[in-house]
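Exercise: predict the fold of this chain.
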Amino acid sequence: MPTITAVRHITLSEYETVRLPSSDLPAPVGEQLWRLLDQSGKKLHVSFPSPKTDYDWELTAQGWVGQFSLPHQLQLNIRPKLPIARLFQLWEAAYDLRLAHLTDGLTTLDSVPAFFNLLAQILAQRVIRRGRQGLQQAYLQETAVLPYVRGRLLTRQPATTSPTVELACRYHAQTIDIPDNQILAFTLHQIARSGQCNSAAQTAVRKAYHLLQPAVTLQPFTPNDCQKRSYGRLNQDYAVMHALCRFYLEHTGPLLNKGDHAIMPFLLNMAQLYERSVANWLQANLPAPYRIKAQESTTIGPNDELRFQIDLTLYGENGRPLAVLDTKYKTPDRPSPADISQVVTYAKAKDCQHALLIYPQALAQPLQVQIGDVQLHTLAFGLDRPLEQAGATFLQRLLNRLHLGDDGVNTAV
């Protein structure tokens, strides 16, 4: 049940509702919650005191988990329904990471804040280790006026009456002040400012940041900046660090000023984690000739009037679309009409015969029905078991539903 502890912690679980007497949540704080977490991203539904709520505050979690420090010594904690070890598996799959050596340490974790601190320490330790080995460098082109020739002497020279030699040159200089390292510095800076770290994590994060600070420019980056970067033999370890950076940049913010300190909530989008983990697991485990494409943009109409972003599209031999899959991180008794209409429309847009709604557990009223020329299915990619086991079961049921063999041949009679 939702509880409010003596230390002024407001605690609830995913999709759970808690009511608070109006005296327990000052009006300005409640309004901040509404503006930052309800109006911006629908992370938490906030109902103001009214006759409808018996003049209490009513807070309902919306599929995000994490913590948010508030003024007046209040802290909002939204707990996941999953064990933290399972949450870690989702995170690994969603961000294409495998940190198996940490599995034993996960048994001591009991909260999302502990998860936050563990990953912050991992990032800091990897940055420190790379700093000791030597940070990634690049040659950048620079232009400067020098007392000697360096690189290429420019045709146009500055006018001068100085008795000393001044030559305009263009040359290449080796530097560590490059985006690969700037992403690390910015993320560590954001984590240090978040107000979410325990003392051990904060010490590690600050140590890593100060290692970069003298020579790396602090400038903002987005989560997308951490993706599709180029890695080779000399900087392969940056792939893991940038994946960690992407995770933090996606799940921290916006800023809330509390006195002299800037605080950022750390909130995990469980629906996004679930969707990505399903997509990445399928990409890694689908037998040939299948392939899965995530977040595919599709248009409909002679002038592309309608545009859709499809969660997952399953392709078969010769690149033929076989099915669209829409992940839903919720567990209703049966699919909603809106979800059915959405996924069937996606199937028609891709001209395929199968539309699947994927849930984290089996529905009480599953569906397998024909809607026009589209077969609608509901399937579970369960979170009650380790990801590999759940994925193997899901994949077998998916192939059976689509009447496909492991060789990609349609076996329907």
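Check your answer against the key: Residues 138-175 form one domain.
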